[in-house]
Design brief:
Layout: H1 8-14, E1 18-26, E2 29-36, E3 47-54, E4 59-64, H2 75-95, H3 129-136, H4 143-155, H5 169-180
Antiparallel strand pairs: 1-2, 2-3, 3-4
Helix pairs in contact: 1-2
GO molecular function: zinc ion binding
Keywords: Membrane, Metal-binding, Transmembrane, Transmembrane helix, Zinc, Zinc-finger
Protein name: SWIM-type domain-containing protein
């Protein structure tokens, strides 16, 4: 399989989902067992995987305790097989006397043994504890401070949405707008109450 690195099973192995793996010989078969983390539910107990492999390397049967394990073709089984193949390769290198500099560099895989709690988004802390503590110490803006800030902005010729909602700026802006664009109430006249639609 030249494209085996694109398989989901290989990605599970590379990401450290395989927690343990072992092999025992029974008659003419190798029994490979292992524990694999769940694909999406990391807080649950690990899955149990076993494979029955003939001496020629062919897989006779396999099983996993996940939902797709009954079909004997889930990716967790493949991840355990990749782990067993890697362990066998390391054993052969040690027997041949290969040193750590004779093989390609292997970076440490991330540790997934620590469970990550699943909480709602509004309960997540999106900053460090120091930043969160700093934000809690910021006092709220008073009404007088808000009016003074808007007054300074008006002095520089700036207008914001707050000017249209905070008094006395809101009333001033509304009057200026009425002088430019008359409202429907300003168009009302008692003389037009008896006219028809066509006359209007």
């Amino acid at each position: 399989m030249k494209a085996h690195k694109s398989l989901q099973a290989y990605k599970y192995y590379e990401s450290g989902f395989v927690m343990a793996a072992g092999t025992i010989v029974i008659n003419d078969f190798y029994v490979v067992v292992g524990k694999v983390k769940h694909s999406f539910r990391g807080n649950l107990k690990p899955l149990h995987v076993w494979c029955l492999i003939a001496k020629d390397g062919s897989v006779s049967t396999a099983h996993c305790t996940c939902m797709a394990g009954n079909s004997e073709v889930c990716s967790h089984i493949g991840a355990v097989l990749f782990a067993a193949e890697k362990a066998n390769g390391k054993k052969e290198d040690q027997q041949e006397g290969a040193s750590c500099t004779d093989v390609l560099a292997e970076w440490p895989r991330p540790n997934l043994s620590t469970p990550v709690p699943i909480v709602p988004i509004h309960d997540m802390n999106w900053g460090t504890s120091s930043v969160k503590q700093k934000n809690q110490n910021i006092p709220a803006v008073t009404d007088a401070e808000l009016v003074n800030m808007l007054q300074d902005m008006s002095g520089f010729g700036y207008s914001s949405v707050l000017h249209r909602t905070v008094e006395p700026f809101a009333t001033k802006i509304r009057k200026e707008a009425q002088e430019i664009i008359p409202s429907i109430l300003d168009l009302f006249s008692e003389q037009n109450t008896n006219k028809t639609y066509l006359e209007l």
